[in-house]
Amino acid sequence: MSLIPSFFGGRRNNTFDLWDPFQDLPFTGGALSVPGETASFANTRIDWKETPEAHVFKADLPGVKKEEVKVEVEEGRILQISGDRRVEKEEKNDKWHRVERSSGKFMRRFRLPENVKVNEVKATMENGVLTVTVPKAEVKKPDVKAIDISG
Questions:
Q1: Fewer Cβ in 10 A, N or C end of the chain?
Q2: Running DSSP on this structure, what letter comes out for residue 127?
Q3: pLDDT in tens, 123-150
Q4: What is the pLDDT of residues 26-60, one digit of tens each?
Q5: Cα-flanking dihedrals φ and ψ of residue 132, to 5°?
Q6: Do strands 122-126 and 54-60 pair parallel, antiparallel, or not at all (unpaired)?
Q7: What DSSP string runs through 84-117?
Q8: Distance set, CA 107 to CA 14, 74, 98 (Å)
């Protein structure tokens, strides 16, 4: 944490308030953004690992209910994970000191490989972690026929 006073304008209550270097930039609200602002969390972090049996996707979605999340497989083997995190209801007398948790809609899309069973995709949600399992189809090994050599 930085205890640098504001050199870029704006009055602070205390000389040693935390300095937010992004506060005065026009494209972002910074870490100390104004209450009520909603920022999309399109950058929802998702891990994708491949096991011998399946492709497994894990997304951290704290505070999001399973009813607010959609998992779909579109034509062309596109896995889409989307949802909406609601902004917390504000009370009239609340005084916000920091707003860092994001809210709003999110969506992530992944092109699945050809060796998956898109009709057998399973999804579970436990302790704010969404796990999507996409089973792999067995790769048929080509039949090899031994040929006798005469002569």
A1: C
A2: T
A3: 999 999 999 999 999 877 788 888 999 9
A4: 544 444 433 333 344 456 889 999 999 999 999 99
A5: -115, 125
A6: unpaired
A7: EEPPPPPPTT---S-B-S--EEEEEEEEPPTTB-
A8: 40, 14, 25
